[in-house]
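Good morning C.,

I know you're traveling, so I'll keep this short. The sequence:
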Amino acid sequence: MSRLSAIFANTGLSETERRIILMTNNRLNGCKYCMAAQTTLSRMAGVNGDIIDALRRNTPIADAKLEALRQFAITNNESRGWPSQKQLNALMTAGYSRQSVLEVILGTALKVLSNYTNHVADTALDGAFEANH
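The C-alpha cells, ready to paste straight into the viewer:
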C-alpha cells in the first residue's frame, strides 16, 4: 500500500483534494480506523478544519469546486466506478479534468485496499489517532 500511497501523493491533486477523496471513501466504507487516522493526518497536513469536519459529518464543503470533488468521490464509490455522463460533466464543470477522474479512481482503490484490510484485520486504533475517533 505504501507504493500506491506514494503514487497517489504525486497526482495533480492538492493535499486537500487527496484528503477529500480518502476521507470520503473511509466514511463510505465504514472504516473507523482509517477515518481517525486520516483526520489526524489531515490536521497535521494543514487541511482546513471546516473541510475535515464536513467530511466527518457528511455535510457539504463550502468551496464549490471541492464539494464537486467530494460528490464525485461519493459517486465513484457508490456506483462502483460507473458514474453517469452527467456526473462526469459536473466534475469537469467544477474545474477538474479527465486526469482527475483517474486520480479519484486511484484514491478510491487505495482506500478499498486499506479499509478492507483494516476490516478483516480488526486493526486496533493507535493511541496517536484516539482523539479523532
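Safe travels,
E.
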